[in-house]
Write a structure and sequence with these properties.
Radius of gyration: 22 Å
Helix content: 25-40%
CATH architecture of the largest domain: 4-Layer Sandwich
Structural class: alpha+beta
Number of helices: 18
Distance between the termini: 41 Å
Number of domains: 2
Bound molecules: iron/sulfur cluster
């Protein structure tokens, strides 16, 4: 890598990944205290511009946080310092922290902070001190961790490491910028695009990438008989321009819309997406059905929270504020039968509000199709789905797996004239990954990719 500072490029990469986390941001470069802030990276970088420009290192890591464990505080913002030996940031959730805590606490009384990442980082340090080799240390750690993780780290002497769990729940990819001879590892390829770097390949599940003065080295620290890629990355989480595990998110969403049009051929005048993630799916539904697609709902980006994503906000209050800033375009829906395309129904609050706003704007009939199947169980692998009791599909229909019945019950709950949830087969067909390559734990309640059944925790326990 050339001898030029990477701090500004880290900021640019994080801005391209802002859709993955809006709570806090952080940057770690060797020889400097970790720089962190609450809120969005753009505002944080402006406020800290002088400091960021003073960073001279040609290696570093950065993170934007969406919390699944631990509170939204500056202390919990990633990267996290692990005894001055390395800084670590994680995408994912460690589901068995109760197993790690007693082992780690014996040596390090660290638990002022309860984040799973900090625990995993300290356990990794213990293994590294015993093994003096990162691949072996990760191998040992992987045997103990149940959950999902894509870690990035920087050591005190400037080695950058990136590891993806052997199940491959969360994405991680490798890029290269030939102009500056720079290797980049990022959660999604959209960050590489923003940095005008080439996409090299996905980091494979169980691989460890090392970037040091000796160049790029990739080793394997763990194997799994099968992968458990998260389909929610394709329907909601990922950026539409990203390519994840050989499949483009945009293509997947568009095909999912086509799948839903074949499954649920509702008769209507217009197809409208719930912005923004469902837009390619609405296009797909429109193409397959021949019903025109229009923008009947729009995010008002000029308002304070207009550009934020509601689902990844940590509190119900802020989620609702954002949904309220979605506006209805009356001439698109007034006097018409409307098909609304959404990526998921979680608690049902947002869906109910949107349906009501369409009726208020004069929509005659409102149908809804949903690209993700009914979510009935919490996720312990990196997505903040609430406890079972809060999930609408669970409240409406308990454990029954009959989608036709559930469609009727949830339709009544959210006030639509007809509802069509996708199912696992349709999800696999739309994304292009086999059913045996993905996780469906939040749909089926079978946590097959975890090493042990998760301890079912309350929301308060997860966010303590
Ligand atoms: S439980 Fe659901 S959201 Fe969580 S990793 Fe599995 S498919 Fe994705």
């Amino acid at each position: 890598m050339e001898k030029q500072s990477v701090a500004e490029r880290i900021v640019k990469g994080l801005a391209a990944l802002q859709h993955r986390g809006q709570e806090s941001w952080g940057i770690a470069v060797p020889g400097e205290p970790i720089l962190k802030g609450l809120g969005l990276i753009g505002q944080g970088a402006d406020a800290n511009a002088k400091k960021i420009l003073s960073f001279t290192s040609n290696r570093g890591i950065g993170h934007v946080r969406y919390s699944t464990r631990g509170r939204t505080t500056l202390e919990n913002a990633h990267p996290l310092d692990i005894r001055g030996e390395f800084a670590i940031a994680q995408n994912g959730t460690i589901a068995n922290t109760e197993d790690l805590e007693p082992i780690v606490e014996k040596e390090f009384p660290i638990l002022g902070s309860t984040t799973d990442t900090k625990l995993a980082g300290y356990r990794l340090l213990q293994h590294y001190r015993a093994e003096h080799d990162w691949t072996r240390a990760f191998h040992k750690l992987s045997k103990e961790l149940s959950g999902s993780y894509s870690f990035v780290m920087i050591t005190h002497d400037g080695e950058v490491l990136a590891a993806r769990d052997e199940a491959g729940y969360r994405p991680l990819c490798l890029g290269y910028d030939p102009d500056t001879d720079t290797h980049i590892v990022a959660s999604e390829s959209c960050a590489l695009t923003a940095l005008q770097a080439d996409f090299v390949r996905d980091v494979q599940p169980g691989e460890l990438v090392s970037l040091s003065e000796n160049g790029l080295k990739i080793t394997r620290f763990a194997d799994s008989p099968r992968h458990y890629h998260c389909p929610f990355e394709y329907t909601y989480f990922g950026h539409p321009s990203s390519r994840i595990d050989d499949h483009y998110v945009y293509d997947a969403r568009r095909k999912l819309g086509r799948v839903l049009a074949r499954k649920y051929p509702f008769k209507a005048d217009v197809v409208i997406p719930v912005p923004d993630s469902a837009r390619p799916a609405a296009l797909g539904y429109s193409e397959e059905s021949g019903i025109p697609m229009e923008e009947g709902l729009m995010k008002d980006r000029y308002r304070r929270k207009g550009s934020l994503r509601s689902f990844i906000e940590p509190t119900a209050k802020s989620r609702e504020e954002i949904v309220r800033e979605i506006i209805t375009i009356k001439p698109v829906v007034d006097g018409k039968d409307v098909i609304v395309v959404d990526d998921s129904i979680v608690r049902g609050t947002s869906s109910r509000n949107i349906v009501q706003s369409l009726r208020d704007a004069g929509a005659k009939k409102v149908f809804m199709v949903v690209t993700f199947p009914p979510i009935r169980h919490p996720c312990y692998m990196g997505i903040d789905f609430p406890t079972r009791e809060e999930l609408l599909a669970n409240k409406a229909d308990g454990e029954t797996l009959n989608i036709a019945e559930l469609n009727k019950k949830v339709a009544r709950e959210i006030g639509v004239d007809g509802l069509g949830y996708n199912d696992i087969n349709g999800l696999s067909e739309g994304i292009g990954l086999g059913k045996d390559e993905m996780c469906f734990a939040c749909v089926t309640g079978e946590y097959l990719g975890l090493k042990k059944d998760p301890v079912l925790r309350t929301r308060e326990e997860m966010k303590a």
